[in-house]
Amino acid sequence: MNYWFRFQFIALLALVSFTASAQTDWEWSQHHIAFTLADDFKPVTNTGDEFTAKGDGMDFSIFPFGDQEIDHSSIADYTIEIAKSVELEQVDDADVIEMNGLKGAYVEGYKEGHRVVLLGFIDPESETNFFAVITFADDDAEAEKEAIRMIRSFRKKG
Question: Does residue 122 lie in a domain region?
Fold first, then answer.
């Protein structure tokens, strides 16, 4: 009985350690924003014009763009227009969102067997806007949870 208790305790510690270290913070210093990705994500491109990374069954991309016409009241329309332009086969959800000092909107849909999350957002104190794309297999519930964590992690850096 004592052996079984020790085994469970060690397994719990290993799980807690793995969970605690399963995230990596990324800072895009050129644009004063940061976000968190799972440790399995590896950067593919990291420039001032684009950040892309691939994880286990997921792709992530973020792009800055300058458009002084877009503000917190029009970013939702902009994001919906982007969703139309990529011709999603199905749209499941769309809404506005505030993310730690950033304001935006997202559209979640489906295309060619993949779940696609499109996120448009602005830094209200800057002229730089952002567009992010997260894709993963449509039936991957864990990836969907990870996408939500990624979106919630976006934040301004001072």
Answer: yes
Decide: 31 and 64 in contact? Cβ < 8 Å.
yes
* Residues in the chain with pLDDT values less than 70: 1-21, 158
132 in a structural domain: yes
What is the DSSP-derived secondary structure letter of residue 32? T
**Per-state percent for the chain, helix, strand, coil, to nearest 5:** 30, 45, 25
> Residue 18 domain-assigned?
no
Determine, yes or no, domain membership for 12.
Answer: no
Asked if 37 and 55 count as a contact pair (C-beta separation under 8 A), the reply is yes
User: What residues contact residue 36 under an 8 Å CB cut-off, 6+ apart?
Assistant: 23, 24, 25, 26, 149, 150, 153
CA distance 50 to 35: 14
What pLDDT is attached to residue 114?
94
